[in-house]
């Protein structure tokens, strides 16, 4: 069964393909138009607090020039239907830059993103990356043994309102993530991937609170 899933998924567009198409359409159609087109109905982004994308971007006009971005790493579930992409972004002004993280889910042949975050960085502009794909193991500790989901946020970590934290996992439970926004706007994202024996934390985004206005 696992082999059949892997064989079938090999012929379908990947989350890397979806990310590149998303970035391409941002340049062709407009930044927020592309964000709306590729977002799931329940997708979230941050301002810095969590907002529902389809509501927040409903009437937002596209900027004259769109941000550019490209995936550098793609963490994929065993069944290939869920992925977390991360990589650099470049501002339209050619000066500002940073990194992004996007969580993608595929239904049939169509990918939609459900989480988009990231932050700015200092230093020289990063070069276009060569993407690396990291796939979760399809092996369990013993045949038929259940894969236990990654640890959720503790009560202390999730002390803000429900709208300011969330979590998700792939249908096969080999990829999981959780996020949280502090009351001051600081944000945290953790991504876990099954390696055949345990969950390994493969990505952490800790974004500081924005400067006080």
What fold name goes in the CATH topology slot? Nuclear Transport Factor 2, Chain: A
Number of helices: 4
Rounded mean pLDDT is 88
* First-to-last CA distance: 55 Å
Q: Any idea what the shape is?
A: globular
Question: What is the number of E strands?
Answer: 12
The main sheet comes to: 8 strands, mixed
CATH class equals: Alpha Beta
Radius of gyration: 17 Å
Query: Which class do the helix and strand fractions yield?
Result: alpha+beta
Oligomer: single chain
CATH architect. name: Roll
Work out the strand percent: 35-45%
Task: Provide a descriptive summary of the structure in words.
This protein has 213 residues and is α+β, with helices and mostly antiparallel strands. The chain is 16% helix and 38% strand. The longest helix has 15 residues, at 15-29. It is globular.
């Amino acid at each position: 069964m696992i082999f059949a899933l892997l064989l079938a998924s090999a012929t379908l567009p990947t989350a890397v393909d979806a990310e590149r198409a998303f970035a391409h359409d941002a340049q062709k159609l407009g930044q927020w138009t592309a964000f709306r087109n590729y977002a799931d109905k329940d997708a979230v982004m941050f301002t810095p607090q969590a907002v529902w994308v389809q509501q927040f971007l409903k009437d937002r006009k596209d900027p004259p020039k769109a941000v550019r971005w490209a995936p550098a790493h793609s963490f994929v579930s065993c069944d290939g239907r869920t992925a977390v992409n991360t990589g650099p972004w470049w501002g339209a002004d050619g000066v500002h830059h940073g990194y992004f993280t996007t969580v993608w889910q595929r239904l049939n042949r169509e990918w939609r993103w459900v989480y988009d975050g990231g932050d700015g960085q200092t230093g020289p502009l990063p070069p276009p990356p060569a993407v690396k794909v990291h796939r979760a193991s399809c092996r369990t500790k013993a045949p038929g043994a259940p894969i236990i989901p990654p640890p959720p946020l503790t009560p202390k970590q999730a002390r803000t309102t429900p709208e300011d934290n969330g979590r998700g996992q792939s249908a096969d439970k080999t990829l999981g993530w959780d996020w949280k926004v502090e009351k001051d706007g600081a944000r945290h994202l953790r991504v876990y991937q099954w390696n055949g024996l345990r969950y390994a934390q493969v990505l952490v985004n800790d974004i500081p609170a924005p400067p006080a206005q």
